[in-house]
């Protein structure tokens, strides 16, 4: 199967290794991967801020960039949710672009759901020795309905022990511009999230959304805590 890699801005700018690990995982599973440098921001920040007109050129560029793709895979629940669900809302009054948005929607996947549901792989051959817990990001869980998939993959990693935290599905407080507009609320929310992470005794918190992991990881680092915030792709690439 041929896939096109869709890399979110935060991964591209701050954690490019995540994107590289996605390629390693997919190639190990026998999936060919291509990357188009025509892709830029999908427009999510503008869309969620209410600037729909400013989102349009970014959305159209994304649709054009992946027009010939058989499948599009991204290590980001929020960007996939934008492309899969919000583009259809964005172009609801434009039949021509709506049809193209629907076509892209049908073939765009977050990494874990692509592995589990499209190529039907649970065990990628990874090995990671240690205890981890999993954070359900809002965009991944509520936007895409993805929850069991990353857990299935983690449980097949040799040497890894998955320990569930309390309220794993509660928001970490990032919420895009929410954390900038309401920093004190965001800090209180991430404080509670980290308390639940620490209670598990895990050495790492794993997620499928880089923005949440950066928010949680930033707080962990600021507090001098040794727990790491790690993307699922970084775990699944271990030992392969």
Strand line-up across the major sheet = 2-1-3-4
Secondary-structure element order, N to C: EHHEHHEHHEHEHHEHHEHEH
The unreliable regions are none
Inertia-based shape = globular
Q: What is the residue-mean pLDDT, rounded to a whole number?
A: 97
Q: In total, how many beta strands? A: 8
Proportion of residues in helical segments: 40-55%
Rg from C-alpha positions? 18 Å
Query: Strand share of the residues?
Result: 5-15%
Structural class by sheet pairing and helices: alpha/beta
When the domains are counted, the total is 2
What is the tally of helical segments?
13
Please summarize the sheet with the most strands.
4 strands, parallel
Architecture overview:
The protein has 2 domains: 2-117, no CATH class; 123-236, 3-Layer(aba) Sandwich (Rossmann fold). Helix 5 (77-90) runs antiparallel to helix 6 (95-106). It has 240 residues and is of the alpha/beta class. Helix 12 (210-222) links the parallel strand 7 and strand 8. It has helices at 9-14, 16-28, 44-48, 52-65, 77-90, 95-106, 111-118, 138-144, 148-155, 178-181, 183-199, 210-222, 232-236; strands at 2-5, 32-34, 72-74, 108-110, 127-134, 158-162, 204-207, 228-231. The two termini are 20 Å apart. A 4-stranded parallel β-sheet has the order 2-1-3-4, sandwiched between helices.
